[in-house]
Amino acid sequence: MAIAKSPSKLTLPKHNPGVATVVDYLIYKFPQIDASIWRQRAIDKKLHWHDGSVITLETLYQPQLRVYYYREVEKEPEIPFRETVIFQNEDILLAYKPHFLPVTPGGNYVNECLQNRLRKKTGIENLQALHRIDRVTAGLVMFSVNPETCHLYHQMFANRQMRKSYQAIAKIEEHCSEPRAGQQWEVINRLECAEPRFLMRIIEGESNSHSRIRCLDRFEDKALFELEPVTGRTHQLRVHMQSLGWPIINDRYYPVLQPESADNFAQPLQLLAQQLRFKDPVTGQPRTFHSGYEMNPATWL
Predict the structure, then answer these.
(1) What are the distances in angstroms from CA 181 to CA 210, 220, 275?
(2) What is the pLDDT of residues 103-126, one digit of tens each?
(3) Rounded CA gap, 6 and 127, in Å?
(4) Residue 69 clears pLDDT 60, i.e. is over it
(5) Closest-CA residue to 82 (of 120, 134, 47)
(6) At residue 70, what are phi and psi to the nearest 5 degrees?
(7) What distance in Å separates the CA atoms of residue 160 and residue 56, rounded to the nearest whole number?
(8) Domains (ranges, CATH) in the chain?
(9) How many CB atoms lie within 10 A of CB 11?
(10) Which burial class, exposed, middle or buried, applies to 180 when counting CB atoms under 10 A from its CB (0-12, 13-18, 19+)?
């Protein structure tokens, strides 16, 4: 059994979805976790409020209070790739995340995530991820080191003052149009959850997603793209590439959801969070950070 060293937390919504107790809400919120597990956690005193007081089976739902719990999984996968610290000062840390490693705990991953690895490596228990990239995506992730300035960097992301640049390799099918080096696209549409709910789809309606995409290079039946997300919807770049007719190589979700199986470490998603550019809200200094990697369609087999 793998048990998280640090607690996860969630804030109870202002509007009660129709439950009586906190445990009832956790069962409603996380249907993939058996109800008996949440009840046993309450019995074992593994649920508590912000002040440390225990949440029991009878504790009533209280809107907008924060609940803390410790995630558990029977067997946690190990990711055989290493992270790299790119930059660190008294306020922030930037690291390269390898494919398959989650940024923070989730799903079957409790302690095996970038945030926990970096906390152990640096000894900084306050280290906090400022944004996320998909588990199967590699590239740059930024962390707060100083709790006193953390909110300034959070605001920078929330206000879209961070310029992100990705690279992706796609295979060009015979029936699809062929992109030319230098060709650009502005993809603007509405993304909503599909079925199952971890997938996204494009629907009619007011736009809520925007990506800039440019073809950088061609090699035989593959092409290299630069992707700049203007907004940050779930799976946005993956869905937008598919919508142009060029799904990213080794994408197991788009255009067709593949059967669930163990990770194939030899076939990572060909998507890289390559660059971050921003004006540092603490120093006022313009900053640019690079992952240290370049994708090349000629070397992908």
Answers:
(1) 21, 13, 20
(2) 998 878 888 999 999 999 999 999
(3) 12
(4) yes
(5) 120
(6) -110, 120
(7) 40
(8) 2-73 (3.10.290.10), 84-162 (3.30.2350.10), 164-271 (3.30.2350.10)
(9) 11
(10) exposed
